[in-house]
Design goal:
Helix content: under 10%
Radius of gyration: 22 Å
Strand content: over 45%
CATH topology: Porin
Shape: elongated
Order of helices and strands: HEEEEEEEEEEE
Oligomer: single chain
Strand order of the largest sheet: 1-2-3-5-6-7-8-11
């Protein structure tokens, strides 16, 4: 873990220790008041990596918030920066190798679960995990944004489906009772990166190659989230 992430994690542990000394133990089933249910929605901005490239993603999320401390919801996000690759592959329709400049598109969505420590404090800490399903596609750069003939499979000719898990630690700032800014440092684990292509060598031998190494989409992540909801 990088020094900044370690420092934030130690601050989170210290805050947990203080709260355990100052507050009595409660559960959601037995407390002095009924559980309070509210919710929030928000915008996601994320900086992360992909196969050595620095990338930016945007997205949205929404969650149910229980007692201002536990939340569960859904999220979705996609990459705005599309890294460029120069790929030579075998095209069986013409029985020849083809060289194209390709851009990588990547998006995912799924379930969001997390907790917040001392949410009524102006500055507070917490953690979350995102469990998602997504896909990446390789798109010819020269035709990016243009789909000849409106072919629904045009963007899927080099497509791979993946599963993701992204745990992160977070710091939040209460701007008002309905607006909060959160930052988070985490790590994205991606499984299922196994799409391959063929190259013709020696005039007739087809050699199989991976588009990406299996860990190419694994990356540290940094998020800034703008959250709107009921925070009191």
């Amino acid at each position: 873990m990088k020094p900044g992430g370690l420092a934030l994690f130690l601050l989170f542990l210290a805050q947990v220790a203080v709260s355990q000394e100052e507050e009595s133990y409660k559960t959601i089933f037995k407390s002095n008041r009924n559980p309070r249910v509210s919710g929030f929605g928000g915008l996601i901005n994320e900086i992360s990596g992909l196969d050595g490239n620095v990338t930016h993603q945007i997205g949205a999320e929404g969650a149910v918030l229980l007692n201002q401390s536990i939340f569960i919801g859904l999220y979705g996000q996609g990459m705005t920066t599309l890294p460029l690759y120069d790929i030579t592959y075998y095209d069986e329709s013409i029985d020849l190798n083809v060289n194209e400049k390709m851009r990588v598109a990547f998006g995912h969505g799924g379930v969001l679960v997390g907790g917040i420590l001392r949410p009524n404090n102006a500055v507070h800490f917490g953690g979350s995990v995102r469990l998602g399903f997504g896909a990446y596609s390789l798109i010819p750069d020269v035709l990016r944004g243009n789909n000849p003939g409106n072919d629904p499979n045009y963007y899927l000719r080099f497509n791979d489906f993946v599963f993701l898990a992204t745990p992160q630690i977070e710091a939040g700032i209460n701007i008002s009772s309905w607006f909060r800014i959160n930052t988070g440092i985490g790590y994205r684990f991606v499984a299922g990166v196994d799409n391959k292509y063929y190259v013709q060598e020696g005039g007739f031998v087809l050699v199989e190659r991976p588009f990406f190494e299996s860990d190419a989409f694994n990356s540290p992540t940094f998020q800034i989230r703008l959250l709107f909801g009921g925070f009191r």
